[in-house]
Design goal:
Helices cover 39% and strands 16% of the residues. With 424 residues, it is α+β, with helices and mostly antiparallel strands.
Length: 424
């Protein structure tokens, strides 16, 4: 009987004190086949093991990434109870973050695994939905924001389900986007994306809480973060209610840089647009009109706002608009030089537009709030430029190893008694 040959690069026995024992291959288990090993000590006592991350048994060959030879027992790693390699799951998470549907990503995963569709039928998206449930939290925890930057931008967009035969359109869900700029004029980036049933002040507060909780998962600490110096919004009542409820933001003297509360600033582009519409009600539309020229400086300094107020008083709608916005514009114009130099929601609007492009055509398929937020998290990672399959693979492999091979249970976040429904 031929004694099994020692492996040139053997697996490590997970039992304490077995680091220097003799390890050989010892058959396979499962489908697809996973490599088993036998550990034998100097006394001849042996046991079999597969390791925390079982490996898919290959036929030997060359690694497609580094061109180095690979032995049959050195195949790609799999989850302990998963049929697919972690590398395929990582690529699928990149795909859905880029906008592919669950079904399209599942088809690609099966094709890359050399399996093809089930019985000639297109695969369903349940496979990818389960991968999102199990793996996406690990990716988000690694790359979560851990503090609020100097300036925070917040805005939302609604998704509707249209019934052309009935001529109706019903709200499906809302996605709230949060963006930030660091102190010192650095480049801004998205901080988080959050899905909820509708746009309310409480849901905006929940979105800010969601970003903080992700960061707490990353740091392992649970605490309230230091508030930003300024929060920039479009002035909608819902988002203003959210920033007031969460940070007590306002326009008083105790709000802003160095103060205990954030300054609640209105987006100047939105204010200019609303003012233009008000002027249009009086037939004022051309750029050469004298009141248009006054509008150009109305948001830059108090004198400009006073001049626009005075000259616009002869137009009823303009006078009403000025009275309604006087306190807000006067407060931020007076302190414009002291506040962070961020005046528009344009950067966040671009992020929201890209998210809308990826979700809008299939808005009716999303019902589970928890999973949609995980999907939005993958889109958040794409916005940061972190959606790389090799990087995802490393993070997933480390997460499974840290959990001693015990992955989260699949379908754990499926809707249960409407607990996670976007449309209760």
């Amino acid at each position: 009987m031929v004694r099994p040959r020692l492996l040139s690069k053997p697996a490590v026995c997970p039992r304490p004190g077995h680091e220097d024992t003799r390890v050989v291959r010892a058959g396979t288990y499962g489908h697809p086949p996973r490599q088993m090993f036998r550990c034998e000590d100097s006394a001849g006592v042996s046991h079999r093991f597969s390791g925390l991350l079982p490996r898919h048994v290959g036929v030997g060959g060359v690694c497609e990434h580094c061109d180095n030879p690979v032995a049959a027992h050195q195949g790609p790693v799999l989850g302990p109870k998963y049929e697919f390699e972690l590398q395929l799951a990582a690529q699928a998470l990149v795909d859905v973050g880029a906008g592919l549907t669950y079904t399209q990503a599942a088809l690609r995963a099966r094709a890359m695994a050399g399996r093809g569709p089930y019985s000639g039928l297109e695969p369903a998206g349940g496979l990818i939905a389960e991968w999102i449930d199990v793996f996406a939290p690990a990716l988000l925890a690694v790359h979560a924001q851990t503090s609020w930057p100097q300036t925070v931008l917040a805005d939302g967009t609604n998704f509707f389900i249209s019934n052309k035969s009935k001529g109706t359109s019903n709200l499906a869900f809302t996605v709230i986007g949060i963006y930030g700029y660091p102190e010192g004029g650095g480049r801004g980036h998205v901080l988080g994306l959050y899905a909820c049933h509708d746009e309310t002040g409480q849901n905006y507060a929940d979105a800010f809480t969601y970003v903080e909780r992700l960061g707490d998962t990353h740091t392992g600490q649970r605490s309230r973060w230091e508030a930003p110096a300024m929060v920039l919004t479009d002035g909608a009542g819902e988002v203003l209610g959210g920033v007031r409820a969460f940070w007590n933001a306002g326009i008083a003297d105790d709000c802003g840089p160095g103060q205990p509360r954030p300054f609640a600033k209105r987006c100047e582009w939105h204010m200019r647009r609303n003012a233009d519409r008000t002027l249009a009600a009086h037939g004022i539309g051309g750029p050469r009109h004298w009141l248009k020229a006054r509008l150009d400086t109305a948001f830059l300094r108090e004198e400009g706002w006073d001049e626009f107020n005075t000259r616009g008083a002869e137009f009823a709608a303009v006078a009403t608009w000025c009275r309604k916005n006087d306190a807000q514009v006067r407060a931020q114009a007076a302190r414009r030089a002291q506040l962070p130099a961020h005046h528009s929601l344009a950067a966040l609007d671009q992020v929201i537009t890209r998210v809308r492009d990826r979700l809008e055509k299939r808005a009716g398929t999303f019902r589970n709030q928890n999973r949609l937020n995980l999907l939005l998290g993958l889109m958040y990672l794409r916005e940061l430029g972190l959606d790389n399959a090799n990087h995802y693979h490393v993070v997933l492999r480390d997460a499974v190893t840290a959990a001693s091979g015990q992955l989260n249970r699949q379908r754990a976040s499926y809707c249960t008694h409407h607990a996670y429904d976007l449309r209760p």
